[in-house]
Specification:
Number of strands: 4
Helix content: over 70%
Shape: rod-shaped
Keywords: Coiled coil
Structural class: alpha+beta
Strand order of the largest sheet: 1-2-3-4
Strand content: 5-15%
Radius of gyration: 31 Å
């Protein structure tokens, strides 16, 4: 083999090596982009978790306020009945309180739906990111056993565990609040609070609360 042929062979091998390096650089950049998307998704999950915790704290405060107000109203009613020997009602006070509670529960219900929609979007994004990452991992593994990519795959598995934990926390928050929307119609919606069911009758045009009906969810117990 003369010098010219040797030079041609070396030039060909150099081009092949350059092409291989270029393909690997592209694969590494794709992996980095995917990892960046996963990090953004993880941050979004953390924000959603913080929102869920804030909703739980607000619901707990609302329940404590409602219990304290009920206790004070009962004490005042008892004192007046004993002092004047009469039977009095507090329908207006109860109506005002129920109206405020209905508005708060409606806001909580809307926030819960928004969080559910956000969870669905984040789940779809994580699934899509996982599929892209899995494909890139397989391609990179065939080219070379890259330890860095394997570590990032482990990080994704941890992210998936965080997402599952967040979904479970959402279910726990709903369980702890004790509030559950049973039915939603055009003119009213029913909410279960412990052993009681509240029917909130709304004006369809003004969306203003017109009437609140309270009944026990247990048989033989009517209010």
């Amino acid at each position: 083999m003369n010098v010219a042929e040797s030079r041609a062979v070396m030039l060909t091998r150099k081009k092949q090596l350059w092409a291989t390096c270029h393909e690997r650089d592209l694969a590494v950049r794709q992996v980095q982009d995917t990892l960046g998307q996963i990090d953004v998704t993880r941050q979004a999950l953390q924000h959603a978790e913080a929102d869920a915790n804030a909703v739980a704290v607000a619901n707990a405060a609302a329940r404590d306020e409602w219990k304290a107000l009920q206790k004070r109203n009962t004490q005042k009613k008892t004192v007046l009945e004993m002092a004047f020997n009469v039977q009095i009602t507090n329908e207006q006070s109860c109506a005002d309180l129920l109206e405020r509670q209905a508005a708060a529960m409606q806001e909580d219900h809307e926030r819960e739906h928004a969080l559910d929609d956000q969870i669905l979007d984040l789940t779809a994004q994580v699934k899509q990111s996982y599929e892209v990452l899995e494909q890139l991992r397989q391609d990179a593994t065939r080219q070379a056993e890259d330890v860095h990519i394997l570590e990032q795959t482990k990080k994704y598995a941890h992210l998936n565990e965080i997402m599952q934990w967040y979904i479970e926390m959402q279910a726990l928050v709903t369980h702890l609040t004790g509030l559950r929307v049973l039915r939603v119609e055009a003119s009213h919606f029913d909410v279960q609070v412990g052993d009681f069911e509240l029917r909130m009758v709304m004006d369809p045009d003004s969306i203003k609360l017109q009437q609140v009906q309270v009944r026990s969810s247990k048989p033989n117990k009517v209010f």
